[in-house]
Design brief:
With 49 residues, this protein is mainly alpha-helical. The protein is built from one helix and no strands.
Length: 49
């Protein structure tokens, strides 16, 4: 399996690029869309402000 990193474009409303001091937890979210791919989900959030 090839893993790709596709980061979302920064914006001042939802992705302001504030540096993290450290990471203590990771959350995994279920999108609730059984037909969606990782690329579909990325594209949806990429195009929303």
């Amino acid at each position: 399996m090839k893993i790709q990193q596709k980061f979302l474009t920064p914006n001042k409303f939802s992705r302001p690029q504030i540096p993290l001091k450290n990471v203590t937890k990771i959350a995994v979210h279920y999108t609730g869309d059984p037909g969606a791919t990782a690329q579909n989900t990325h594209d949806y959030f990429e195009n929303s402000a």
